[in-house]
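Support case: user asked for a sample of complex input and structure output to validate their parser. Sending the pair below.
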Amino acid sequence: MQYVKLGSTGLDVSRICLGCMTYGLPDRGTHAWTLDEEASRPLVRQALEAGINFFDTANVYSDGTSEEIVGKALRDFANRDEIVLATKVHGRMRPGPNGGGLSRKAIMTEIDHSLRRLGTDYVDLYQIHRYDHATPVEETMEALHDLVRAGKVRYIGASSMYAWEFSKAQYTADLNGWTRFVSMQNHYNLLYREEEREMLPLCADQGVGTLPWSPLARGRLTREWGTVTERSAGDAFGGRLYLDSDRSIVEAVTRIAADRGVPRAQVALAWLLHQDTVAAPIVGAARPGHIEDAVAAVDLELSDKEREELEQHYTPRAVSGH
Ligand SMILES: NC(=O)c1ccc[n+]([C@@H]2O[C@H](COP(=O)([O-])OP(=O)(O)OC[C@H]3O[C@@H](n4cnc5c(N)ncnc54)[C@H](OP(=O)(O)O)[C@@H]3O)[C@@H](O)[C@H]2O)c1
């Protein structure tokens, strides 16, 4: 495994982050395809044994059970000092007033629930899952800064939003001497590259590390176009993110993977790992082979010609996934 500094911080993260949305009780929350505790634990262990030290979950994943399962597995299999544990806040955890969002009240409540579920007294990277248009950004940034000062959080990060929103949050922190975001977890892969317009150049300029979510386009980049899996069959969100014309990109991945004699997933991840600001793609691994491919991708060097072939079929599209 290779490690990099996350953006301009001193924090060492593995070049693959394990996406823990895959782990959680299927009958809780909105993802019926998740793996329960018994099926999840060997994958967390395998990731650790492969040198992955970076784990990403969220309070909303499977209604908190992702945090519970992953937290317990990490307590059993890892040394807390060696791992980088990331979670998120913003999604709705309860119906009614103050059940979600980024108010001071929501943030202060949700960090304590996440710490309890994870079974730890601090989170390494606490990320806002989206921008909250109903809360003043000053309120959010000060509350996050206070969590850092209280020792509950080591670093803060953000996820999918417009570049102007991210920039506003960062300068609000600067103006008040509060903690800045060190990372941007955004939707970025060979089938969705709108982030190359504004967000990625902003992150490069500001020394912010990026952590692409759904780096394999939720599996579309890993198999024959049109193949349906248990997960993709019920993935309404994923169905809105990609276009029929993306087939030619998947075919380019297929050609290069066949020439190289490697699975498609390795080619798609290697392309992302070549991008300047990308610290670590957040890979969703439901089987041992998924982790093996992700780890192998770190050492796969693509030529300029191969990268050009992968990129040439992309058509710009409407921004989505925020
Ligand atoms: N911040 C956000 O808003 C946000 C949004 C989404 C995700 N995330 C984060 O990103 C993580 C990853 O998301 P994701 O699961 O959508 O990512 P992904 O890596 O693009 O998709 C994972 C799926 O791709 C397939 N796959 C993965 N590796 C494979 C391989 N080597 N060979 C063949 N198929 C393979 C599997 O599909 P099948 O199971 O269908 O076979 C797997 O479930 C999440 O766990 C979460 O931490 C964040």
